[in-house]
Amino acid sequence: MAGGALIPSPAPSSSVQGLQVLVTRPEPQASIWAADLQSNGLDAHVLPLIAIGGPADPAPVAHLWQNLASQRLLMFVSPAAVHWFFQLRPHGAIWPAGTLAASPGPGTAHSLMLAGEDAGLTSAQIICPDASAEQFDSETLWPLLAPLDWQGQQVAIISGGDQQEAKGRNWLSEQWRARGATVQSVLTYQRGPGEWTPSQQALAAQALQHPAQHAWLFSSSQAIDHLVEHHLPAHGLHCQDWSAAHAVVTHPKIAERCQQLGIQRITSTRPTLSAVVEALRSAE
User: Fold this and answer.
1) For domain 20-50+194-281, is the CATH number 3.30.1330.40?
2) Who contacts 178 (Cβ-Cβ below 8 Å, separation ≥6)?
3) What residue segments make up the domains of the chain, in order of their start?
4) What are the residues whose beta carbons fall under 8 Å from the beta carbon of 75, sequence distance 6 or more?
5) pLDDT per residue as tens digits for the range 58-90
6) pLDDT digits over 162-205, tens only?
7) Which H or E element spans position 36?
8) Which residues, in sequence order, are bridge partners of residue 216?
9) Closest residue by Cα to residue 206 from 27, 13, 21
10) Going by DSSP bridges, is the β-strand pair 165-166/154-162 parallel, antiparallel, or unpaired?
11) What is the CATH number of domain 53-192?
């Protein structure tokens, strides 16, 4: 998990012993999160609901690299966006001193520092909400961007998408355009449901059969869509009643999606390791 390792806390209380945590992030984030949760005494298991791969056409990324000096700012939506953007960096391409980078949270900012160092990106060029922010999203990031002069500036949102359609941040794009900026979305990776291993299929089946013994850790509404629309049908699994399931969510929009599914036990928490650990330990 970005932001450095958390010092392991004391063993979990008896209220969470026996509770299995299903980490649904895409790999490799899922394994990193699971390892961090395990180091804090939690029984965490990897159950990815989203798979990530590079774009079928990397040309737009290469073109953006070649014209990076014309951009006032690049907004990276996730660590995956950072990874694939720098993975596709043309040989010898350098990050210009006058181009800023932004991220919705410290995890993505940390990824930017690691991936961008060789290209010349510095911490002074990265704009990101403080680690103590209640949420890590566009609405939290914008107050840090709003004071800058955007008239006539070019902005690129570095994101993923489905079926080669880049998914930009619509609300954030509207704020920039209202202040005179030109905004484009550049697809650097593709999202899909991926496939489960036999052991992951068995884990999901156990979670459906014994909902009180499992907690679904959701960090994306799309992950929930993949779960009910792809993974369960593909493996012959069914759940007509989600009311007994327990979901731990890191954003209000994810909580809304859980409510639509029928989940009644929803624990909301900040998207940081320490907050998630505390939320899971407070589960009964």
Assistant:
1) no
2) none
3) 20-50+194-281, 53-192
4) 101, 102, 103, 141, 155, 156, 157, 158, 169, 172
5) 999 999 999 999 999 999 998 899 999 999 999
6) 654 445 578 999 999 999 999 999 999 998 898 999 999 999 99
7) helix 29-39
8) 22, 247
9) 21
10) antiparallel
11) 3.40.50.10090
